[in-house]
Amino acid sequence: MLRTFSKGGIHPAENKLTSTKEIKRLETPKVVHVPISQHIGIPSEIIVEKKEKVAIGQVIARSAGFVSANIHSPVAGVVTKLDKIFDSRGYQIQCIVIKTDAKDPVNFEDIVYPLKKEIILSPQEILKHITDSGIVGLGGATFPTHVKLNINEDKKLDHLIINGVECEPYLTADHRLMLERADEILIGIKILLHALHIEKAIIGIENNKKNAIALFKNLTKNEEGISVVALAVKYPQGGEKQLVKAILNREVPKNGLPIDVGVIVHNVGTIYAIYQAVQHNKPLIERVVTVTGKKLKNPSNFWVKIGTPVKDLLEAVGGVPEDTRKILNGGPMMGKAIKKLKTPVTKGTSGIVLLSDDEAHRGESTNCIRCGECVYVCPMGLEPHLLMNLTEKHMWEKTYAEDIMTCIECGSCSYVCPSHRPLLDYIRFGKKLTNECKQN
């Protein structure tokens, strides 16, 4: 029987339109806009100046604290200005604008990295490479990876879980990466096992990716301590707490982390980035992005340099269809609508999803009918209808007491609501103001 988490969850249409599309390399853009905040934590500190020439992979913004991350130039070129640009949330953020040097062949040709199996670095050296390379969680949370790996001595680890779930509808970046870079991912797993001094790793993959499951089972059949678990298809199984429950049947504390139950979780994209950093000294300057939608001429998966404008990706798939209502950074459940097509790809951009007018249409919101569906599907055991009501009334002490901060913003509640209540919108707003209230 396939494993899954026990509390809540839904089954939205998968729409994995690009699951058979091999990853192509997007043409290097003429100009990149590289934000200095592409991670949870303190924005990085700019260390380049206008008119300065930069090399590909050069640090252009340095980590400004422990919970921060280095930012590297994704291209060789010249810094034309230090500017602000709109991100996917509609906020203006500081960025470094670099004009690509068209004469530099490194910008336009793939560098062939031979498979390097031997791990020669010590755990301390591995952590330094990860820190220097600016790696963050590529599953969406963008938490600096070196912070996650800096484990207190009182915490006892026994399992590394590799998140190959990719439960968000439409997105296939992780699926294709597993199929096309399986050997590198396996070495990346071994690197982390060595760095963390643990012996067991489990790769969790949802059962709608049977070819990836078969591939990794074959690769790991003679690998002691590394195994593969096929999971039932259920959203949001990619959430850390849900994944730990599904694979190990361990309950992460309400306000805790997987480390509290002896587990550390990393996305397959992060594992691949760790392999590149440790074995080839390559910083995080590009990632796989799915560009998809039912009306697109050629939905695809791309290797994309950080800082590439979204408009370049859309041009590569045939342009924006006329009846497009929304363009999302991320999937339809947790993604955010993009307001400007100059918005750049960041370390956390796993997909660009185009929704037609019919798909993006919201029904008119009406009064709650007390059906309890939102409570039934919530994977965190919350009462979304109550949290929305408390947010509307600005009752921040009550929202905190009702555990609003533990919401993972999966959107399951909004998805099932028969009254079309904007539950997630209000809860996101309520979380922000509840947090500010508690800090003040």
Share in helix: 25-40%
Can you count the beta strands? 17
Radius of gyration: 21 Å
pLDDT under 50 segments (min length 5)?
none
Brief sketch in words of this structure:
The protein is an alpha/beta fold and 440 residues long. It contains 14 helices and 17 strands. The strands form four sheets. A six-stranded mixed sheet has the order 1-14-13-17-15-16.
Key phrases:
four-stranded antiparallel sheet, 440 residues, 14 helices, Rossmann fold, six-stranded mixed sheet, globular, alpha/beta
Description:
This protein is of the alpha/beta class. Among the domains are: 123-280, Rossmann fold, CATH 3.40.50; 373-439, no CATH class. The chain contains 14 helices and 17 strands. The protein has helices at residues 123-132, 145-148, 173-180, 182-196, 210-220, 240-248, 268-280, 310-316, 357-360, 373-377, 384-392, 396-401, 412-416, 423-439, and strands at 23-25, 31-35, 45-46, 53-54, 59-62, 71-72, 77-86, 92-100, 159-164, 201-206, 226-231, 263-267, 286-292, 300-305, 324-329, 336-337, 351-356. The strands form 4 sheets. Strands 1-14-13-17-15-16 form a 6-stranded mixed beta sheet. Strands 2-8-7-4 form a 4-stranded antiparallel beta sheet, with no helix packed on it. A hairpin with an 8-residue loop joins strand 5 (59-62) and strand 6. Helix 4 (182-196) packs across helix 7 (268-280). The radius of gyration is 21 Å and the shape is globular. The mean pLDDT is 95.
